[in-house]
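Format notes (please read before filing issues)

Several people have asked whether sequences and structure tokens are stored in separate files. They are not. Every record keeps both together, in the order shown below: the sequence lines, then the token lines. Line labels are part of the format and must not be stripped during preprocessing.
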Amino acid sequence: MKKVIILLTLACFIAPQLAFGGAWTLPKNSVWAEWYTKYHWEKWAFGSDRDPGKMGGPGKDARGWGWSFIPKVEYGVTDWFTLIGALEGKTSTYKEYVRPSSWGPYSKTSSAVTSWEVGARMRALENPVVLSGQIKGIFYTGYGKNKVPELYAGNDALDMRIIASKKFDTKIPFYVSGELGYRLKNRRVCDEVPGFVEAGFWPSNWLLIKSEIDAVWGINGTGDLSTEKDYAIWRIGPAIELLEIYDMIVNKFTKGTPKDASEAIIYSVTRGGKSLTFEAQYGLTFWGRNTDASQEVVMKISAQF
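Then the structure lines:
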């Protein structure tokens, strides 16, 4: 874990405009696409009392790890209305390293494409903050619930959020964004209140350093007790705008004039311009209930055209 944190911290200081989401919408007829990959690992889990304990109970030395991927796409129907879609797949492994010899080894791996989603984001306000509403349907594919380890709770969901974002064009530009919503679920799975806050700054026009907290609160009494879950994940890392680096190289050899930071970052209301962005994050689940105390490394590559 220490090596991962050190590498990402170094990347922040030696390593854009579309590396964050927020309330901003796409310009009309623009397309944004992203490939999201996450590797996670854990040996602790939060119980129903929110206290961390060893996975699988005492004396088993159980560990878990796995991958997930999410291709995403967005399309700007108008400057204030953006369509969104995504698909999620996962693979997960659970292994117990300490067991009575008479029991034999125990290791299980499962994989599935678990869900897909479609929805829209609509901008309602430009000043003093960009304010948008977002709604999306999340649909279970039928795969992932009856597996060991389980990959999905087997429900569909309606996710509704209000998102507020603000960019500040100071000497070192920065932004803050927050969202709060309600996730309505079926099939006796508990509803949730999702919350998300992020902030970042641009030390140069090709580098964004950002941090975020991604949290979910399960609503008691809205589903079976076994489906109640809370978690809060902290993430940090750099995002590198590759087209800005390309422009700097071209300008250096053609003696052109590079763009200043106020021109290189996003427009005040829409996420404007072409981009090619690489992002890396380290994440830690620092609080939760009925969930794994995971660590994670996230990699993203995205483009707008």
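For reference, the curators noted about this record: The longest strand covers residues 106-125. The CA atoms of residues 41 and 226 lie 23 Å apart.
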